[in-house]
Amino acid sequence: MPKEKAWLKLLEVNRKYGDIASWNLFGYNIIIIGTAKIAEDLLDKRSMNYADRPRSVMSGELSGWGKIMLLSNYNDWFRTHRRWIAQEIGGYGLTKKFHGLIEYETRRYLRCVLHEPERTQAHVRKNLTSIILRITYGYKTIDGDDPLVDLAHVANSQLSLSTAPGVYYVDFVPLLKYIPSWLPGAGFKRKSNEYAAVIRDLVEIPYNWVKAELAAGAALPSFAVNLLSKEDLTEEHEDSVKWASATLYQGKPQAIRVVTTNLVPQANSVAYGFYLAMTLYPHVMKKAQAELDAVVGTNRLPTFADRSSLPYLEALFTELLRWHCPAPMSENPEPDPRNACFGFGRRRCPGE
């Protein structure tokens, strides 16, 4: 399995063996689904059979990611976190309360792009992380580089590396997890220790911050504060709140797409794709700008109240999900990419 663009190799497999194919590797059956229709039939219509997660030794056990929803098995822990998150951001109606916050953070972002356009990618990342930090912990990022934004970026990068398919033999031969880290070939053990230190910071630092704010009576309303405001908190409940909050914090892209446009998963990647699209297709940018000027004018920025009057922009962002989806959606993607790009069945983004 190649370390980069593995989906191209999997596409070759589907072209050769059909839209659903499988092979056995070290006792693991690996199934490759090549169409959204088959994915829907299996993962939606038979979701109870396919809601669990395979064992993830490198990422889930050695690197410490096993308690986030992404890697959690389908159990009471997962269902509780999914329910909590759905109650906070479960659809467009619930998230109207965040519109003012999003518009404020967007203005901060635009000022940053205006003054430092060469750092647009970093500004995009900070904008989206700032929104989810406020929602999750009531934390307002500082001007310039913020340590919690940087921490989320490092952690997500490491998560992607630790879950890359076919990269770590320990995922197929779990007994390798017990070899000493100093042995030749045990570089994955040293790498996992590095990753585990980052995930500990990701979980503990913002959680301890919000606990201190609560104790001082200065905490702003947030997902974590709501769950910690109950009387007689148990250690088990606090641990669950801590990891549910970390799921939101780490999984900001999925959360942000619900809170902002109800369209954008993996928002960082799609936002980068927007800049690429506007560069490659200037006639589309001009048409979108003309719609903005006609509806909003040139004396203010658009708000959520303008959304229903901007159908071309709505279509543009939907097209981004098809044209520049952060993850492959088969050789023949859905006409409406929202039918596939948020996942399937009981593992579908809880903001749906």
Characterise the protein shown here.
There is one protein chain. This protein has 352 residues and is mostly helical. The protein is 55% helix and 3% strand. It contains 14 helices and 2 strands; from the N terminus they run H-E-E-H-H-H-H-H-H-H-H-H-H-H-H-H. The chain has helices spanning 6-17, 36-44, 57-62, 76-89, 99-115, 120-137, 147-162, 187-215, 223-228, 235-250, 252-259, 267-280, 282-295, 311-323; strands at 20-25, 28-33. Strands 1-2 form a two-stranded antiparallel sheet. The longest helix has 29 residues, at 187-215. 30% of the residues are buried. The model is unreliable at 253-265 (pLDDT under 50).
Biggest pleated sheet: 2 strands, antiparallel
Q: How much helix, percentage-wise, in residues? A: 40-55%
β-strand amount: under 5%
Distance between the termini: 32 Å
Care to count the β-strands? 2
Structural class, please? mainly alpha
What descriptive keywords fit this protein?
14 helices; 352 residues; globular; mainly alpha
What's the gist of this structure?
The protein is mainly alpha-helical and 352 residues long. The chain has 14 helices and two strands.
SSE blueprint:
Elements (H helix, E strand, L loop, with lengths): L5 H12 L2 E6 L2 E6 L2 H9 L12 H6 L13 H14 L9 H17 L4 H18 L9 H16 L24 H29 L7 H6 L6 H16 L1 H8 L7 H14 L1 H14 L15 H13 L29
Antiparallel strand pairs: 1-2
Helix pairs in contact: 4-10, 5-6, 6-7, 6-10, 6-11, 6-12, 7-8, 8-10, 10-11, 12-13
